[in-house]
Write a structure and sequence with these properties.
Layout lengths: L30 E4 L2 E6 L9 E2 L54 H8 L8 E5 L6 H9 L15 E15 L11 E18 L1 H10 L3 E7 L5 E2 L8 E7 L3 E2 L14 H11 L1 H7 L3 H10 L1 H13 L3 E2 L10
Parallel strand pairs: 4-9
Antiparallel strand pairs: 1-2, 1-5, 2-3, 4-6, 5-6, 5-8, 7-9, 10-11
Helix pairs in contact: 4-5, 5-7, 6-7
Length: 325
């Protein structure tokens, strides 16, 4: 029986609790996050709800949440043939295991029904340029208080997560310091940009829960016509929500261009400290001290943001002012 837990896959450890690991380990292939586990999804032409959830190599009652005590959901699922080992931190490729059939690969909407979770049609895709691409971070956010009336948070943290090819959106650094001490990623408009961004399909309660954690951002609807998005099935995605920083993005002093975000957090903080005597006095000498001081004191975070602006590093992200579909 294959262990599909985030820990076994090397995808545990939320950046909210381990700031220097920001943005965390993303999913790299389609998967369903549920009950702290990742079950592979097999892309196919047609609606997301018709994609198959690979559960064929699980054994025991946990293989079928409808037979599990209390309907708690699958505890383990398949590592499809040809998939990469979990130690590499990648969700499997989604190829079917030997002998797999409809019983072991239910349609996503059918599987969500079994879990008591919202179907795909009641969900909206949300693109992540930072830690929301990490299943550990998303699980952490959705289980802080639970969603959908869940006291244990399991159903509330059930989210399809799919890498999507996106054009026109660059990945920069928000011009603020977050409450966990790190400098988070933020999107900006860049016609030349081509990135794979993870989309999480969130239901209304989950959207509200994530919104509460993104108070330095505004959520906007990004249309697929202006920013082309392609699913792993090869089909276009008509649009998605995106969190855009209220503070703008950091510019690289050497080039004036947005500073790349979403990479090594320790290296980013070290570079910022090296570029500013004010930051070194406030948050130095190194990344560990930066995180320690910033996490402990809102006034320190606010002063760090002010330093960014006094240095002239903050610039507009240039994305459309849209707040609805």
């Amino acid at each position: 029986m294959t262990d599909r837990s985030l820990r076994a896959l090397g995808l545990d450890g939320a950046p909210a609790e381990l700031p220097l690991t920001y943005p965390g380990r993303p999913v790299e292939e389609p998967a369903l996050l549920t009950d702290g586990r990742l079950l592979p999804l097999r892309p196919a032409p047609g609606p997301l709800g018709e994609w198959r959830v690979v559960t064929g190599m699980a054994s025991g009652p946990a293989a079928d949440p409808a037979r599990s005590p209390g309907g708690a959901g699958p505890a383990n699922a398949a590592s499809p043939s040809g998939g990469r080992p979990g130690a590499e931190g990648r969700a499997p490729s989604g190829a079917p295991p030997p002998g797999a059939g409809p019983a072991t690969e239910p349609a996503l909407d059918e599987f969500l029904d079994r879990l008591g979770a919202a179907r795909s049609g009641a969900r909206r895709p949300v693109l992540a340029v930072g830690s929301n691409a990490s299943p550990a971070q998303l699980h952490h956010k959705l289980t802080l208080r639970g969603t959908d009336g869940d006291t244990d948070g399991d159903t509330g943290a059930t989210v399809p997560m799919v890498p999507v090819q996106v054009r026109g959106i660059g990945i920069g650094c928000s011009a603020h310091i977050g409450r966990h001490g790190y400098v988070a990623a933020a999107p900006y408009a860049d016609p030349a940009a081509r990135h794979t961004l993870v989309a999480g399909w969130l239901d209304p309660a989950q959207l509200a829960a994530v919104d509460e954690t993104e108070f330095n951002y505004r959520r906007v609807w990004v249309p697929g016509g202006a920013f082309p998005m392609t699913l792993p099935s090869g089909e276009p995605l008509g649009g998605a929500y995106l969190y855009v920083s209220l503070h703008g993005v950091l510019a690289d002093p050497a080039t004036g261009r947005p500073r790349p975000g979403g990479g090594d957090q320790g290296a980013l903080l070290a570079d910022l400290l090296a570029a500013s005597a004010e930051l070194r006095a406030l948050l130095g000498p190194g990344p560990e001290r930066w995180v320690e001081r910033a996490r402990a004191d809102e006034a320190v975070r606010a002063e760090g943001r002010a330093v960014f602006h006094r240095a002239g590093w903050a610039r507009s992200e240039g994305l459309p002012e849209l707040d609805h579909e």
